[in-house]
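pls design
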């Protein structure tokens, strides 16, 4: 303890006194947890004092730049549920911010990101200098919270992946029998130098398949020239006639400038959203995954 103004001060007396900024923390005592008062960043356990309050992504309070309780804003690892306020789709579990509110849905890319790692894809073309993967990249603000980029080379680089909505993600056949809208989007751009005038080529394909892997509906635009600023391709599958189970995604790119290395189109922020359905969990009110009831 210490003596201040003829009083013995302790950091465990359950009283805010001395130079403490909150009860028994801050100042010369230990740091304060989220939601407690502070004067400087050093008063807070996460070194973040904002407007006199320690900000945390786990304090049960909407504060700082959070758009919901402990989610959104700088709490990038914690996505907001449906109806929570938002400014970007990347703040939402669904990946969709609709008129300032998170829409109901499940972005299966952010829900189980490990299933979308590079080694889960089938590489069909690895031309030129081959694919490059950057796992700590700066991506568009609304790119679903990912920091992963895939870059291509001076000959075609192509890869694809097929995911199972039931066995990989835990949706029930009953949920999918409603034939929900399924929204896909991917960001891409050309390399930021070397005279790229929108000539690099990018391709993207998304296909819904039924339980026997037969195609239900597909989105396969032609080769697209791209510029050196982020843009995206997107499509909404709706009003299709068969229950979906598999989703096939393919993409690729080619640098038309023929530079050695990975100076072709870069892809990032893939988003695949099952709209109107929450991500499967043990509290979603639906019998799915491997639940017995």
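designed seq:
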């Amino acid at each position: 303890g210490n003596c201040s103004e003829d009083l013995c001060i302790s950091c465990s007396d359950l009283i805010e006194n001395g130079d403490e900024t909150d009860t028994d923390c801050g100042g010369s005592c230990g740091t304060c947890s989220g939601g407690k008062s502070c004067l400087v960043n050093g008063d807070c356990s996460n070194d973040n004092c904002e407007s006199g309050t320690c900000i945390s992504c786990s304090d049960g309070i909407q504060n700082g730049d959070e758009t919901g309780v402990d989610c959104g804003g700088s709490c990038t690892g914690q996505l907001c549920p449906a109806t929570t306020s938002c400014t970007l789709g990347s703040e939402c579990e669904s990946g969709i911010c609709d008129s300032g509110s998170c829409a109901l849905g499940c972005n299966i890319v952010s829900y189980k990101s490990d299933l979308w790692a590079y080694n889960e894809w089938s590489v069909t073309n690895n031309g030129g200098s081959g694919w490059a993967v950057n796992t700590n990249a700066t991506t568009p603000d609304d790119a679903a919270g990912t920091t992963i980029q895939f870059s291509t080379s001076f000959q075609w680089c192509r890869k694809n992946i097929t995911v199972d909505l039931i066995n990989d993600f835990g949706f029930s056949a009953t949920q999918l029998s409603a034939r929900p809208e399924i929204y896909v989007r991917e960001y891409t751009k050309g390399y930021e130098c070397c005279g790229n005038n929108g000539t690099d080529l990018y391709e993207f394909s998304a296909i819904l398949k039924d339980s026997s892997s037969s195609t239900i509906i597909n989105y396969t635009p032609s080769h697209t020239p791209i510029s050196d600023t982020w843009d995206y391709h997107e499509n909404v599958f709706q009003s299709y006639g068969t229950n979906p189970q598999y989703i096939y995604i393919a993409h690729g790119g080619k640098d038309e400038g023929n530079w050695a290395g990975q100076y072709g189109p870069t892809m990032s922020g893939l988003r695949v959203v099952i709209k109107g359905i929450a991500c499967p969990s043990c509290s979603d009110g639906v019998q799915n995954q491997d639940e017995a009831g």
